[in-house]
Amino acid sequence: MREAGVELVADCAEVSLVGIVEIAKKLPALNRVWKRLIGEAERRKPRFAILTDFPGFHLRLARALKRRKVQNIYFVCPQFWAWRPWRANLVRRRFTRGLCIFPFEQDWYRARGVAADFIGHPLVGNVAAKRSREEFAACFGLDPAKPIVVLLPGSRSGEISHHMPPLVQSCHLIALSHPAQFVLALAPGMSESQIASYLKPEVPMRVVKDATYDALGAADLAIVSSGTATVEAALMDTPMIVIYRLAPVTAAIARWLVRTPMFAMVNLVAGERVVPELVQKDFTPARVANEAIRLLDSPEARSEMRRNLAGVREKLGPPGAIERAADIITNMLAKSSKGIEA
User: Fold this and answer.
1) Within 10 Å of residue 176's Cβ, how many Cβ atoms?
2) What contacts 24+ positions apart, CB below 8 Å, involve 15-22?
3) 308, 230 in Cβ contact below 8 A?
4) Which of 9, 235, 253, 313 has the most CB atoms in a 10 Å sphere around its CB?
5) What is the pLDDT of residue 84?
6) pTM assigned to the model
7) Helices 299-315 & 285-297 angle (0-180, nearest 10)
8) What's the pLDDT score for residue 259?
């Protein structure tokens, strides 16, 4: 957004978090950002506010903005169908419009009184490798004739601390029986220093930055932290294993709140378990290694997974989600301007 010319009042990195108990550590930063945003809203008196996901913060912000005569638009409606579905009532009361990026969300939100539209997933049409497998391998000293396993451990510090130790152990187990090459693709904004302490000399691993799509395009298999990265892997037609681990207290609370039978977004979109998902106690080095070896040893299993991922891609809608969102918001602005002129 900064590169596009947007003036940043606050950077989302200041308040990025995942979990329930983890929020306590971010309270001072959240309070600072809250005061800045409310202050700017009072000073600038905007007609519309476009809020993206982050419901714990944005539902409260939407209430405060609505009191100041601001119309709120939810770009990327929260996944309340997965947990705390009653919060859809807050979206209905505080937002003029909701924009959804998964196909089943439009009907779910509309059934709860929200003026919602499915715009498609913004990543469709925007995910592609710039290098071939051979070019990627040559660039990073890999052998294109040997299996390449790509790791996407997440983007938040909590995810890295929970995921990296078992992932490194998993790679060690895989390497004992397989000539696999391991590539760790850093998420945008991450540095190698953030994961350096987790790397082990006995587990050779190439660390790449700003090359996630190239890595996924070259991969025989990806081990992916649950989240947007699973959609990226699906769009790249990459067989995957989905992993995730929360802090124990957060996980215990989440078990009471989560309403879906599956965790991985690609499985939820497919409506069935098309990729393995290893979450919490199931996320162990042995389980990851066993699934990885099964898939690496079976071209048929990987081909079947790719066929299922093609169905996921189809459900994510055609390219142009951002343009469709922009059209909806532009029309709302035009109608609002006519109302003011009248």
Assistant:
1) 9
2) 15/54, 15/57, 16/156, 17/156, 17/158, 18/156, 18/158, 18/159, 18/246, 19/158, 19/246, 19/247, 19/250, 20/249, 20/250, 20/253, 20/254, 21/247, 21/249, 21/250, 21/253, 22/158, 22/247, 22/250
3) no
4) 235
5) 82
6) 0.84
7) 100
8) 57
Nearest-CA neighbor of 212 among 194, 193, 235?
235
Q: What's the rounded Cα separation, in Å, for the pair 151 and 111?
A: 39
What CA–CA distance (Å, rounded) separates 312 from 233? 11
Averaged pLDDT, groups of 10, the chain, 342 residues long: 92 66 71 94 96 91 97 94 89 97 94 97 96 97 97 91 96 95 94 93 95 98 95 98 79 56 86 94 96 98 97 95 96 84 55
Cβ atoms of 185 and 218 closer than 8 Å: no
**Do 146 and 180 touch, CB atoms closer than 8 A?**
yes
- Nearest residue to 151 (alpha-carbon basis) of 132, 173, 170, 177: 170
How many C-beta neighbours within 10 Å does residue 181 have? 24
For residue 297 the two structure tokens come to 């040893």
Residues pairing with 184 in the sheet: 151, 207
Residue with tokens 């037609």: 237
- If phi > 0 it is left, if psi is from -120 to 50 it is alpha, else beta; for residue 45 that is left
Predicted confidence at residue 62, as pLDDT, reads 98
Helix (H, G, I), strand (E, B) or coil at 223: strand
Residue 20: predicted pLDDT: 53
Q: Terminal CA-to-CA distance of the chain, rounded, Å?
A: 34
Please name the amino acid found at residue 290: N
Q: Report d(CA 291, CA 273) in Å as an integer.
A: 14
